[in-house]
Amino acid sequence: MLAQPSLFTRWLFVMGLVMGLGAHAQTGPQIALSGVAGGKALVIIDGAAPKFLSVGQSLQGVKLLAVEGDAATVDVDGKRQTLQVGGAPVSVGKGRAGGGGQRTVLTADPSGHFVPQGQINGQAVQFLLDTGATTVALGAADAKRINLKYEHGQKVRMNTANGTSTGYLIRLDSVRVGDVVAYDVEAVVSPQPMPFVLLGNSFLNRFQMQKTNDQLTLEKRF
Fold this sequence. Notes:
The protein is mainly beta. The protein is built from 2 helices and 20 strands. A hairpin with a 2-residue loop joins strand 6 (62-68) and strand 7 (71-76).
């Protein structure tokens, strides 16, 4: 049985949706341009370590077409996008059900919880794995820090330790933990402060989970 998170998670979760969100199209890989040098582009794909690409070279389905000044043009699934050095990550090409590797292994902390570092839309966050949470959940402060436009999401009613409040149901372009990535992941943003981002079942259900001692293996299902 997986270790359950501490009591602070119990005051949170969606009690009822005002109305369901419609299906969202999945987005392509998140790509950012970190720099250019000697006709090469230093690109970041889905928050992974930066890699240099030469014109005509491809990496994870991203092909570099041209480098000019502090800009680079890439192609994904026949769609072109021009990136600027230091610009925000952008999604290019067709949607994908997953990305990155097929499996990752997490190690529990001394209290038995799984608190991996990860990324949402290419931005670093601190997760707490919570198999009792319906979706990924984060506080408004974290959402603002990573530039989520959650106010445009579907309003939901939430019960917290301080009473009923209004949260926002949204879709995340990508969620990365270790070597695995999932795309188009449902999440809820709470107005209450949260010390972690809860890694709930909208992400976990896409993986087969196997716990051995203090290690948890996530193996991609789809």
